[in-house]
């Protein structure tokens, strides 16, 4: 069924905002620039989203709500298998849906992954608060699963390590803009999601399984 006029306008605004936010960042991207790219006007933004903050929220909800469902479904499949999932299984369940999204332009592709990376490396409190809320159930369910997979790790230490895991995933998925900050290696293709996943999961697993130092062991007892 073809989209009606208002639905098409809303989709054009979301597409334009996603692209321009990814290219220019949250502070620099103006509503006038977005509406010009979408072939519409400021009144359409106010009608569909209320203001720029509502538009930004809708951009993230459009992509992250399906991504979160896929991550929760992957976790539920592991938990129904009858054996407690291991660390690598959990990392794959967490990362694979994002890698699939990164390969598919219809669900945001590399452009949305780059935007998501920006959300973690740019100091925008409203966007970070939005992401914190959107990730709530995924964060709680996976934290519980990793707690079971790493029973010897104190809760506070696991929280720190998962914080680093999520930050690393976001930075890696941000693509070439982020990688260019730390390397000029022309043999590295940061948009090759298959190579990214193959290297990222063992790296993260090693970090989660790293032995505690004696000070951390003492605090965990």
TrEMBL record:
UniProt keyword annotation of Cytoplasm present: no
Q: Which GO terms describe its molecular function?
A: DNA-binding transcription factor activity; transcription cis-regulatory region binding
Question: Signal sequence: where?
Answer: none
Going by the UniProt record, its keywords in alphabetical order are:
DNA-binding
The record's listing under Gene3D superfamilies reads: Tetracycline Repressor, domain 2
Name one matching Pfam family: TetR_N
Residue ranges of domain HTH tetR-type in the record: 7-67
Q: Which PROSITE patterns match?
A: HTH_TETR_2
- Which ranges of the sequence are annotated as binding DNA? 30-49
- Its recorded name reads TetR family transcriptional regulator
Native organism is Inmirania thermothiophila
